[in-house]
C-alpha cells in the first residue's frame, strides 16, 4: 500500500517551523552533547503539542558546524561551542568548581536535562577501542550535571551497547543519581515504532527527582506503543527521487565506477544483497557485514543510519531504485527531521554527513517528553 505524502498529512514535509518559543508556560531545558539539536527538537515538538514554550537555558557541543545548525533552528537558545567539561569539570560528590559555580548561576530551575554523550566508543562498529574508549567517561558527566543543576528530570540517550561499557558508565551514573534522590529507569527503544523510517535502537536512561514522575511507567509506555509502522522509505523519501540540486543538502553522491557497476547489477537483477563475487576482496568470504554494498527497499525502513550514508561501502545505503547512495536530505528525513529544520549553514557534504549521521531522531525525545511534560508543568503550576 502506498502511503500518502501530502504535506497536510505528512509530518516530514512541513516547511513552516512552529513557534516553539511561545506558550503560557515555558519548559526550561539544558541539552549537553547537543549536536545539531535532535533531542531539543523532539522536546520542542512535545512542548508545543501541550501549549508550552521552549526555553533552552544552555546547549553545549564542541563541533562548530553542528552548533551553527543548532543556532539556526533555535535562535533564542543559549548555545555554546565548547566541551561539556568546560561547564562541568568536577568529580562526582565533590564541591563545585569555579566553572561549575558559574554554570549553576546560569542554569537554575531546570525542568529537563537531556544529553547524548559520544557513543562511538560503545558502538559495535568500533573494532579498535570498543567498550574502553576514554570518551565513554563523558556519559558520567551527565550525572555530575544533574548533581549541580538538580533538574526535575534527566534523559540520557546512547547506543544499546553502552550497557557493556567496561567501566560501567550506566551503572555509575544510575547509582549516583539514586544517591541524589532520583528514581531511575532505563530501556532500549526502537525508533521505528515511534514513526521513524529506520530500525535504529537507542538506550534511554530516565531519572526523576524526588519521585515526581514514574519513570518506569513512562519508558514502558513509550516502549510498548507502536504507531504507524507503514513509515517505510517510500513514506519518508519517496518525493525526493528526482531531486538533484548542486547544493550539498540535495546533491547526489558520486560513486566510483566499481561501485556504480555494483549498484547497476543490483537494479538489473532486482537484488538487494551483493554476491561475494562482486564485493571487494576484503569483504568476500566470511564476513559479518552483509549490508555493505546493499540496496534499500521502498517497503521497509532503513538500517541504522551513520555518517557513512553517502557511500554504499559503508552500509546498506543504496537508493531503492537509483544507482546512487543517499543524499543528505534523504538521510535527514530518515532520521525524522522535518523539512522546516534547516541544515543550510553546513556548506560541505562531509559536515552534513557527520551532523545528520550523529543526530538523535527527534521522535525519541518527543515521545518521552510528551509523557513527562504534563507532570512537569503541573508541578510548576503548583509551585507558582
From TrEMBL:
Catalytic residues in the record: 119
Biological process according to GO = DNA restriction-modification system; methylation; negative regulation of gene expression via chromosomal CpG island methylation
Q: Which residues cross the membrane?
A: none
What EC numbers are recorded for this enzyme? Answer: 2.1.1.37
The record's listing under InterPro entries reads: C5-Methyltransferase (IPR050390), C5_MeTfrase (IPR001525), SAM-dependent_MTases_sf (IPR029063)
Query: Can you provide one Gene Ontology molecular function annotated for this UniProt record?
Result: DNA (cytosine-5-)-methyltransferase activity
Q: Which UniProt keywords apply?
A: Methyltransferase, Restriction system, S-adenosyl-L-methionine, Transferase
Has UniProt tagged this entry with the keyword S-adenosyl-L-methionine?
yes
Q: Which Pfam families match?
A: DNA_methylase (PF00145)
Q: Does the keyword Lipid biosynthesis apply?
A: no
Family the entry assigns: Belongs to the class I-like SAM-binding methyltransferase superfamily. C5-methyltransferase family.
The protein's name is: DNA (cytosine-5-)-methyltransferase
